[in-house]
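In response to reviewer comment 3 from the previous cycle, which asked for concrete evidence that the modeling workflow produces usable outputs, we include below a single protein chain processed end to end. The sequence was submitted unchanged, and the resulting structure tokens are shown without manual editing.
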Amino acid sequence: MIGRKKAYSMAAGVSLAAVVALAGCATSSPQTNSTSSSSPSSSSSGAASVQQENITFAWWTTPIRTKMTEQAIALFEKKYPNIHVTSEYEPWNGYWTKLATQAAGGALPDVMQMDASYLNQYVSNGSLMNLTKTSINTSGLSPDVVDMGKVNGKLYAVPVAINTFCEIVNPAILKKAGISFNPNKSYTWDQFANILIEVHKKLPNVYGSTDDIWQGAPLAYWARSHGESLFSANGKSIAISEKTLAAWFQYWLNLQNKGGVEPAQANAAWDHTDPTASPFDKGQVAFTYASIGQDASYQQYLGKPIERMMFPDWNQPSKPNILHPAMYWTISSKTKYPDAAEKLVNFLENDPQVSKIFQNDRGVTANLKNRAADEKAIGGVVAQQDNFMDKVEKVSSVVPLDPPAAGQIEGNLLENIGQEVTFKKLTPDQAAKQFIQQANQILAQG
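The workflow returned the following structure tokens.
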């Protein structure tokens, strides 16, 4: 993904739930971004004869997610005092760079948070354990959701949550601009553009949206809403036509020229891995792209209620909107402690206390029993997210996993070419040709 939100999923992300008081959280090392909630040699006296097992656990993160996850690890280590967990976490971009280096050196973490855009890649290079016959309990997940973690019929990844991408809205800006807007309506792409442009006309110091020209998930949706797909069925080539791709680049360039999105310099100036830096959180744009889970942090930092809407043209017979695994738990095929790794995955996936800690931070909880319990016990933003997902599920499809190297295509390649368009160094037609040519080269290399 950027079948995921690259900014701070971004999880995908990044994805953050309402803040709760979090106690017992560990402090991270500024040099390594690694932390642990107990000493490697510590164990209860009753477990003194049990061998200590030390495992590493890696995930991409945000500040809130770090605190939540460390609290969950503390609970795990309390339940299993003979298992010591060392945490490794990075923002989205740094995470995949570090994981690639570790994979090349044959030293992947024992347990890893995984994204759909990279799952095929790590399965194909033999990095992930086949979880089909492990002790991990997936009975709380629907069969369709379990299938999201399978490659060639074998389970390599356990979906943490399900998710969808959406536009989040600052209704206060639209009200101030005097713009009538219905978040439940299936606007056309042109109607949506007109709303974004109208925001800037009515409020010259505000733009309609962040510029999402470089975001892979909206691009893949754009292809589907135009009767195409981003990748071919066999994953060996780009399937979106040059004409449809050029229209994507032109759409966002037109918005930039008319004030519908922020200018190129402004878009390039802020750190897209820092949720507090988003112009949406500063009240400078009315819309931004997010995944469910991230929306709560936007509302927190904005300090005002938000609304959610599906992408334009969602109400089509082809159901272009998709459901996808927000992220997965996976285990290294070379782990020295498979039993301990399985216990950690099983705990993170199914423990009701962990589910309440995460509060949809990683997407809408995949475990159906925990999801229902959280919605009732927590309410608020969690209930809003679950209710939105209930509506989305009725009009959405499940698409095949992205091919290996999709993350590079939907990530760095699209970002670089998209930026060339925003700074008008490439025309939309030139950008489409260059993207397809380079993406096909990447796919051919596997």
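The CA atoms of residues 235 and 403 lie 5 Å apart. We consider this sufficient to address the reviewer's concern, and the full set will be provided in the supplementary archive.
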